[in-house]
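Batch 3, record 17
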Amino acid sequence: MTKSEKVLRIGLAGAGVVGQGLLKFLAQRPDFAPAGATVVVTGVSARNRERQREVDLSDLVWFDDPVELAMSDSNDVFIELIGGSEGPARTAVEAALSLGKPVITANKALLAVHGHDLAVLAESTGAALLFEAAVMGGTPAVKMLREGLVGDDVSRVAGILNGTCNFILSEMEASELSFDVVLADAQARGFAEADPTTDIGGFDAGHKIALLGALAFGGAPDFSTAEIEGIDQVELLDIRLARQLGFRIKLIAQATREGRLASVRVNPALVPLSHPLAQAGGSLNALFIEGDRIGRIFLQGPGAGAGPTAAAVAADIADLLTGARRPVFQKPARLLARLSPADHAHRKTAAYIRLLVADKPGVIAAVTDALAKAGLSIDSFLQRSVQDTGLVPIVLTTQPALESSVDEAIEHIAALDVVIERPRMIRIAQI
Amino acid sequence: MTKSEKVLRIGLAGAGVVGQGLLKFLAQRPDFAPAGATVVVTGVSARNRERQREVDLSDLVWFDDPVELAMSDSNDVFIELIGGSEGPARTAVEAALSLGKPVITANKALLAVHGHDLAVLAESTGAALLFEAAVMGGTPAVKMLREGLVGDDVSRVAGILNGTCNFILSEMEASELSFDVVLADAQARGFAEADPTTDIGGFDAGHKIALLGALAFGGAPDFSTAEIEGIDQVELLDIRLARQLGFRIKLIAQATREGRLASVRVNPALVPLSHPLAQAGGSLNALFIEGDRIGRIFLQGPGAGAGPTAAAVAADIADLLTGARRPVFQKPARLLARLSPADHAHRKTAAYIRLLVADKPGVIAAVTDALAKAGLSIDSFLQRSVQDTGLVPIVLTTQPALESSVDEAIEHIAALDVVIERPRMIRIAQI
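Prediction for the assembled complex:
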């Protein structure tokens, strides 16, 4: 690409935490010269030019419009750290790729939603599109699935992909505080965004698992078919009760393939305390990969932060300089598998169900009868002492059963006169 | 390389477990066409043509001499699965690289011993030299360190890299049988070689950690400076006592960098039961990677077997077809860091020490005095009941101290009249 001059000129759009991390890395590591080329940032674009930053941008050519930066001849590679599936990030990435200019991005939303179209575009102009920083920060999960495991048929990827949610759940358990209190504290400390919806709603983990599933299965990402449930309904009470039953509640993202069907989903789930995913606390990310030949691989590391994420962007820069010609996802866009969403009613799950019932004779019989009618077997049953109000909290876990049967049982139970509030169901992870 | 014809012709040297695994993979996956090229094995070489195999080799051109296969125009890539740092494997790999022919190998011994020379040779002719299958089977540790983490300064890699040793240690604990009995059983079941020295002597893990350390630190592998201790001296008694103290004994391979110094070593070590490395049982492999920016990454997977290892070879084939031009190790051979071996006497370790002493007054005082003289602080002390023989077994663990102090303390203790046999010291892992 720049073989003759041996300088790679970068246009950087987005000078937030990760962008500044990258500038710092390049300043600290003047010897970072993959394949002999020197890496130099020549132009930058960000929302606010005046904002106080840890790095000095005054030597760089400023672009008010990231699209102009993406199209400028003054750089050889466009690095997009703006974020968001639409707007300037999308327009700028499309503009660079249209010109055949390589793009490096950390934008999981953009790729999860428009990945297939962008792959078609990139492959039509021969531009590379790299996104190691989009998932698990500096832990190279993207490279592992796109390149390291192509000699296998991967059937499942599952894990913890959102550090903010993992931090909040860990804090709730450690501090015995409610979701709202812990979230407000995380926001105050800068661990959660002012508008936390993308994280706590499970959407960020959904974008990431849609991407990883696509890489794992040789398909195109399709965020529109993902089933997403966040952690905003997780109560401290459930964290405590799960703990008593030997579980920890985690936000689990998973993508599973069965033949031409794939399911991509994110939901809070109970994980046995001894399981590696239960032990990944704080803002750690963790991932299981299951394949026919490789068996089970486990990968864990910091999921975010300036250092790790900038390291992932730098790895993409190095990759670009090898001149590797590879498709954006595991296969060329025209060969990507068309995977239909699996019908969730046919999926099996074990369930944790929490009830509040009136303290009347025959209540337990009524509840267990409702479960039996739906074909559910009870795995454990925990009746708490009667409250002052005359109400009895009950927690039970079921054996794995069809999700449709679990839904049916919940409806039966909710319809009982003695049941005071809608039962709370949380899946038990089968990992 | 074969862009016009779209066929990649492979010469395969070695038709053992991994070679047959690769042939099976290619037979099962006719769609395995990375970058559009079809992969075909055209020639094969192995020690014994007549041996019964799970795959049919009769359609392939047979070469008695792997060097001839390596030099033959009938293939575009030479895959070396013979093994061994010298002899036909080395000669054949050198022959292929000299011609500028790409080589894929699973041979950790060859690379750990001659890696630098081979990198110089490969880079002089422009031939690729890939070796994902050399370490951790199908778990892409090589790709992770060579490519995924180049945007960081990795200071340490440490873990469990020999599946046979891990299997034997796990079996000793589970079955309460001695090393010799478990090894004989593992040999009978095909989990250990007839001559097990390479595995149980720690040499295989040493080759692997020398390679991973080189990739991690941007240096050349240098097996000659590795300190190697195997598991053949691990007694069931120590496994039991360690367990009582809250530890499990594992064969730990680690490479550590401090400035221009690096240490590479393999030794049995006590790992706390709750540590992920203690929980990697059976023939699993596991690895921690620590870097300035990325923090700590943990990677675990099956370390061997036909399926995983063949998947790693296939991933290298796919990599080759991207046309990526990258150095053999993390940097071009001429730029590889020259790292001197660190002086082990300046290294710190905590130690487990097991003694057998005579049941006489003042014995404990004499032992603790010897420890104090060497500057060692005791962390835990376990005196077992007096044996019929009038001898008292003592087990103690120390706080971290200079290895030279630990050596000195052992000498002091061994010299005491009341100490019946040479004390047994096993390091406590600082991971």
